[in-house]
Specification:
The longest helix has about 40 residues. About 25% of the residues are buried. Helix 4 runs antiparallel to helix 5. It contains 8 helices and 20 strands. It has a 5-stranded mixed sheet with strand order 3-2-1-4-9, with no helix packed on it. Strands 12-11-10-13-14 form a 5-stranded mixed sheet, covered by helices on one side. The chain is flat and about 95 Å long. It starts with 5 loop residues before the first strand and ends with a helix. With about 425 residues, it is an alpha+beta fold. The chain folds into 4 domains: about 50 residues, no CATH class; about 170 residues, Nucleotidyltransferase, domain 5 (2-Layer Sandwich); about 70 residues, no CATH class; about 90 residues, General secretion pathway protein M, EpsM (Gyrase A, domain 2).
Length: about 425
């Protein structure tokens, strides 16, 4: 009987990465607890199938309700919801999103969409993991529960419903014990979930820590449920594993650039060879064995050069459609960034295309409208538009405005 292959789990710990190991189908045991925060600095990782659990600080959890029970539609619905919130993962950085079901109800489904930040310098181990997931899914809890623990010196928390992850967040709190500011962040998350139709009131609160001096007083005061303090349990493999599969974006772009340079080089060589052949004439080509070899190489390279030329032509045709700055959602995001904070200014109508914009909105105060107009004209991301911002009109609810913009005809040409 062959020996089972060990699984190796990289888990974010209280102060650094932890390495857990275990045979297939068996519980994990702690192999090493380090103070290393950069995964690339882990040099003594045992052999076996490597699984990386991303820390909570690396992700953004977006709970939502959708009026569908079709699992095949969930990724697209989650992507549309995330884009409305201004969250757009880098398409060059691999598979950075996944969707998990919280609960299924009549005619609607509660989901949580997980968006992973593209790994940066030092975020990935030297040996490529076989699969990826997030640490918040490695500690399942029964019922409606709140779990609080530390990752890399910062307090994080998760909210679960019937054992399913609802929400997780890394806080900026680094105090020795959970304090009032941490409790406020958790209560704020619960209120935001409630506004989205996800009513979660923890019946269990667990505080995981390896220190005997950590006090649960702030959590006990903030929640009616009792707080249980214990060491963090051993992680378990999430089932099913996530579809997260980040790529080394820099390596991918270097490889793409290398391939492009190779194709350009082949096309240039082909043109040089054909030019040499035409210059010296057909007779010299027939008599020169060396020139014959060059012609063979040129013929072999010509299809790749033609394919590259066709590719460039097609890409130029699609340029206007694939450029992100032409996306109406992207343009709306830039316009939204011009709205003065806490001013009460809102847009009632926003008709947006790649070359024209029409905005109809209102604000309680004239100053907010004037500031918004100034911000639109000063925004460098919108400087290709020529804005028409006539004076606003006073109404019973404040001040109404109608602004328009268009790209000049000369600038609109590809």
């Amino acid at each position: 009987m062959s020996k089972s292959i060990d699984n190796v789990l990289l888990v974010p710990g209280e102060s650094g990465w932890e390495i857990w190991t275990g045979p297939s189908g068996e519980p994990f045991t702690l192999h090493a607890a380090t103070d290393i925060e950069r995964a690339s600095d882990l040099t003594q990782v045992p052999g076996g199938d490597l699984l990386l659990l991303f820390p909570v600080k690396s992700i953004t959890a977006v709970p939502m309700r959708v009026t569908s029970e079709d699992d095949a539609l969930f990724p697209d619905l989650a992507a549309l919801h995330a884009e409305r919130l201004g969250l757009r993962p880098d398409p060059m950085a691999g598979q950075l999103t996944d969707v998990f079901v919280i609960a299924r109800e009549a005619e609607n489904t509660a989901l949580v969409s997980v968006l992973l930040r593209a790994p940066g310098e030092g975020d990935m181990p030297l040996r490529g993991p076989k699969s990826f997931d997030i640490s918040a899914r490695a500690y399942p809890l029964t019922g409606d529960a709140l779990a609080v623990w530390k990752e890399f010196g910062r307090w994080v928390f998760t909210l679960s419903h019937q054992g399913n992850l609802v929400y997780c967040q890394a806080t900026s709190v680094t105090a020795a014990s959970p304090d009032d500011s941490l409790a406020r962040e958790i209560r704020l998350a619960l209120m935001q979930l409630s506004m989205q139709g996800l009513e979660i009131e923890p019946t269990r609160v667990v505080l995981w820590t390896s220190s005997e001096n950590v006090s649960p007083a702030a959590l006990s005061a903030a929640f009616r449920a009792p707080v249980a303090v214990s060491p963090r349990p051993a992680p378990v493999l999430p089932n099913p594993l996530s579809k997260l599969l980040p790529a080394d974006i820099r390596a991918a772009r270097r490889e793409a650039l290398r391939k492009r340079n190779v194709i350009l080089g082949i096309a240039a060589i082909a043109l040089i060879y054909l030019g040499v052949i035409g210059w010296f004439g057909y007779g010299l080509w027939r008599d020169s064995s060396e020139t014959k070899k060059l012609l063979v190489q040129a013929k072999e390279a010509a299809p790749e050069g033609e394919a590259y030329a066709i590719h460039i032509a097609k890409w130029d045709e699609l340029a206007n459609a694939v450029e992100l700055h032409n996306s109406p959602v992207d343009i709306l995001s830039r316009i939204a960034s011009c709205i003065p904070p806490a001013s009460g200014l809102r847009l009632r109508t926003a008709d947006i295309s790649a070359t024209e914009i029409k905005l109809i909105g209102e604000a309680p105060q004239l100053q907010a409208v004037n500031t918004f107009s100034l911000n639109l004209n000063k925004n460098s991301d919108l400087d290709r538009f020529e804005w028409q911002t006539p004076e606003s009109n006073q109404s019973t609810r404040g001040w109404e405005f109608v602004y328009s913009a268009e790209v000049p005809a000369a600038a609109a040409q590809p």
